[in-house]
Amino acid sequence: MHNVATPIWNEIADLAESKTWKYLMALNQERQAQAIEEIAAALRSRKVPPMVILSYLEMAPMLQEQHAIQTYLATHPQLRSVFPEIRSAGEAALIAQQDRPLSPSEVKKLLQLLEEPPHFAMPEGAGDARPDRRQPSNDEATSLRNYKPATAEEVIEAYRHGAELLHELMKDRPEPEPQARKPS
């Protein structure tokens, strides 16, 4: 989720079908970052490899809320490049492999996770209301109505956050399995 600005996820949250993703998408930036770290910790406790966690956090909401995203893109076509159309876990895994190196066992684990519904612990009543969202002031409401694509600084900040998460995930990662070279 760190690859898309929080205000965009906030708008998509209204269209989301899954209670889990609806809740996570609706959080403010700080709380969303905390929730993502909690999900990453839960996946680490299940011995999920760090690169799979990162790929899952990026691909799962885009796969599992594809209908909501496509509905949102109908009125925000300038964001199509941010949200690839993903119709299956296999497509999501292929896109993830383009973004980062995944071993065959990591791809298999990613596919397994993407095919499961999200099942992370959420606070009591999550999904019933908009969490951590205060009423915007008139100035903020006007700026949300006039929302434009993320600025370069916002994109850089999102990538910086992703890099920090990746660094945290990678610090305990074992060395990659050596790949046998095929004769040419």
List its salient traits.
184 residues, 0% strand
From the alpha-carbon coordinates, what is the Rg to the nearest angstrom? 17 Å
Supply the number of helical segments: 9
Model regions low in confidence, pLDDT < 50 over at least 5 residues: 127-149
Strand fraction equals: under 5%
Q: In sequence order, what are the helices and strands, one letter per element?
A: HHHHHHHHH
**Which structural class do the helices and strands define?**
mainly alpha
In short:
It contains nine helices and no strands. The protein has 184 residues and is an all-alpha fold.
Structure description:
The chain has 184 residues and is mainly α. It has helices spanning 6-13, 19-26, 29-45, 50-64, 66-75, 89-99, 104-115, 138-145, 152-170. The chain is globular.
Detail the topology: elements first, then pairings.
Layout (H helix, E strand, L loop, with lengths): L5 H8 L5 H8 L2 H17 L4 H15 L1 H10 L13 H11 L4 H12 L22 H8 L6 H19 L14
Helix pairs in contact: 1-2, 3-4, 4-6, 4-7, 4-9, 6-7
